[in-house]
Amino acid sequence: MCGKQGKKIVPQALVSGFHRFRELYYEKDPALFRDELMHGQNPKVAVVACSDSRVDPAIILQTEPGDIFTVRNVAALVPPCEHDGHYHGTSAALEYAVTVLKVEHVIIIGHSHCGGVAAMVRKQEEGACSGGFVATWTDLLREARDRALSREPTLAGEDLVRASERQAVQLSLDNLRTFPFVHEAETEGRLTLHGWYLDIVSGELLAWDDGSGQFVPL
User: Fold this and answer.
1) Among 212, 204, 216, 177, which residue's Cα sits nearest to residue 193?
2) Which of 15, 102, 197, 217 is most buried (most C-beta within 10 Å)?
């Protein structure tokens, strides 16, 4: 939809949101940006979250500007480490977070009703998936589905998708450890890895617990 001069109309809700942001941060706490954040960032936590509009980590975790370094992609997926000369946006962001920003925690946040995981499951069952880039990216999640079925072979439909979503979090944690800089930092005690799962229906946030071998409420 365009105006008389052919310019696209900016959604007013977003403009109003920006003005509220200015009132909350720039006007109430101008030093945050003018004296602190202008000189760089120093987050202690990096978050890998889904691109899904319903699961913005800054809103879910109620963080302030500068608190978290966020990497978002389809299905909150961490791919395995690959040195093939291709473009690896998620891997580059993680490298920057761990080696330059020296974050102390990396948190993978998966979520229920994830379209990326559902697309992968549909492709495995029906042999088709819309979108070439999406299909290729979510192929990395096939192992999550395989792990879910190895634990419960009778899973199907939405139950299989839910189980695959949880397994995807664990798969991304495993893939994180294939990066030498992550493995080194974790081994030396400078970095802690976390796997979380958000149920967007119940509003419950779960964390993977190595001791019990399951997700437990936070």
Assistant:
1) 177
2) 197
Q: How far apart are CA 198 and CA 166, in angstroms?
A: 10
State the pLDDT at residue 129.
Answer: 59
Supply the DSSP string of 9-36, one letter for each residue.
Answer: PPPHHHHHHHHHHIIIIIIT-HHIIIII
Alpha-carbon distances, residue 8 vs 16, 32, 188, 197, 204 (angstroms): 17, 33, 52, 38, 39
DSSP one-letter string for 122-149: HHHHHS--S-HHHHHHHGGGHHHHHHHH
- The torsion angles phi and psi of 191, rounded to 5 degrees, stand at -140, 135
Model confidence over 52-62: pLDDT tens digits?
999 999 999 99
Indicate the range of 3-7, 20-24, 121-125, 195-199 predicted with least confidence. 3-7
Distance between CA atoms of residues 120 and 111, nearest Å? 15
Residue 90 contacts residue 80 (beta carbons within 8 Å): no
